[in-house]
Predict the 3D structure of the following.
Amino acid sequence: MLCEMCGKEVPRLVKCDIEGTMLNCCQDCAKFGNRITPSHSGDSPGYQAAQPKGHVEKALERRKQRQTPRDIYEKMGPRELVDDYGERVRKARVSRGMTPEDLGRAINERKSIINQVESYTMHPDEKLVKKLERELNISLMEEGDYSAPKSSGNASKGMTLGDLIKYEDSKKG
Ligand SMILES: [Zn+2]
C-alpha cells in the first residue's frame, strides 16, 4: 500500500484529515493531520460508518428495561375500597337469597361480621374483601385515580389560592 501523502510503501495505511482532505497515509504522515480511524485496507468505509451505540446509551437502555415492571405497578395505583361497599355486599347477598348467616358460612366468617360490613360499622380488610368479592361475584375495590376527585365538593379542599387558580385554569384547558 502506498501512502497518498509521501508515496512510501507501508503495510498499513491510516485515514487522515490533512487540512480538510481525506488521505490514506502512513503512520509518519498521519502525525501531520487529524487521524480519523485506523484503516486496515485502503478502501475501508470506516469514515462514513455509523457510530456504534455509546456505553452510556446502552446503560440507560438496560436501566429502562429493568425499571419497566415496577413502573407498571406504580401506574396501576393503589386499589381502594369503594364508598358503598356495604350496599354492594347487601344487594348482592339479597339478590342471591342469602341471609347474613348464609353468606357468613359461605366465606367462613361470623354473621355479625357480615352485618357490620353491610352497616359500615366495620371496615373489611383486604382478605375479607377478596372473600366477599369472590363469593358474591362483585367488585368492592376501585383503582385509585388521583385525576378525578370523588366528589366536586372535595375538589378545592386543602388547596391554596394559587392551586385553586391553577385548577380553574386547567379546567378551561
Ligand atoms: Zn507518508
Q: What stands out?
A: The beta strands are 13-18, 21-25, 34-39, 79-81, 141-143. Residues 3, 5-6, 8, 25-26, 28-29 surround zinc ion (CB under 6 Å). Confidence is low (pLDDT under 50) at residues 147-156.
